[in-house]
Specification:
Elements lengths: L1 E6 L6 E6 L4 E5 L6 H10 L3 E6 L5 H4 L2 H8 L3 E4 L25 H8 L13 E4 L9 E6 L2 E7 L8 E5 L7 E5 L2 E2 L2 E2 L9 H12 L7 E4 L5 E2 H7 L8
Parallel strand pairs: 3-4, 4-5, 5-6, 10-13
Antiparallel strand pairs: 1-2, 2-3, 7-8, 8-9, 9-10, 11-12, 13-14
Length: 240
């Protein structure tokens, strides 16, 4: 499977377009300002969108989900634990809520690309997977036409944070880690829905157990790989 990347102008959030050999595709984490570029990619390569996948429900990863879902008439898929965020993504951001802090970093980032916080649109076609509640819900196989992805629940940054494992023709699956794992760091846990204990369990039981050869594409920042993070990331347990 081919993977194309679009970087959102808001917080440089990574949006990935997963392209199957038959031309089916899925869009992952379309942040603010990515919809037009995604539509251009779809048109240029004559692709058939089958769904929009979200690693979690924060606004910088979901802003253009409704627009693309409507434009392509496809569902938005995310873990059941984060579905509630799509109704009010700013209300679940606590101190970053741009309605409470109109001069804060998220409000400024949105306005820099000509977007007002009040312009948020809730996706109308939402397909949750997994289950809401305490504890991880394991793997869910998502089949979107020719696009097949393993969704692995990884709570801690939010209740429904998810890793997507993608067969991109490499020895090990590529991991789209959202805001769970970054190069040299991890996602914050001090926003509503964040949980230190859940994040520690995710890092120990989910992230550290990923195949060492897997390339990691975080929700922000440079790519990395599991082996490098296990050796150098101060937040991950060391594995022999």
């Amino acid at each position: 499977m081919q993977m194309l990347t679009v970087v959102a102008p808001v917080f440089a959030a990574r949006c990935s377009v997963l392209v199957a050999p038959d031309g089916d595709c899925a869009v992952v984490d379309p942040g603010a300002g990515t919809a037009e570029q995604v539509r251009e990619i779809v048109a240029r390569h004559a692709l058939r969108p089958r769904g929009v996948l979200l690693t979690h429900g924060h606004a910088d990863h979901t802003w253009d989900a409704a627009a693309l879902s409507a434009a392509f008439d496809v569902p938005v898929l995310l873990h059941a634990g984060d579905v509630h965020r799509l109704a009010d993504p700013f209300g679940t951001l606590g101190v970053l809520d741009p309605r409470h802090d109109p001069r804060g970093p998220l409000a400024q980032a949105l306005r820099a690309v000509g977007v007002e916080p009040a312009a948020w649109q809730q996706p109308q076609q939402v397909q949750p997977f997994g289950r809401a509640g305490v504890g991880r819900t394991g793997d869910v196989d998502l089949d979107l036409g020719g696009v097949r992805v393993v969704a692995r629940h990884a709570p801690g940054h939010t209740e429904g944070s998810t890793l997507y494992l993608v067969d991109a023709g490499e020895v090990e699956p590529v991991v789209l880690s959202g805001d769970v794992l970054f190069a040299g760091g991890i996602g914050r846990t001090d926003l509503p829905g964040g949980d230190d204990d859940a994040m520690l369990a995710t890092l120990r039981d989910v992230v550290a157990a990923l195949p060492r050869g897997s390339r990691v594409l975080p929700g922000h920042g440079p790519a990395t790989d599991v082996a490098t993070e296990l050796a150098t990331n101060p937040y991950l347990p060391r594995r022999g």
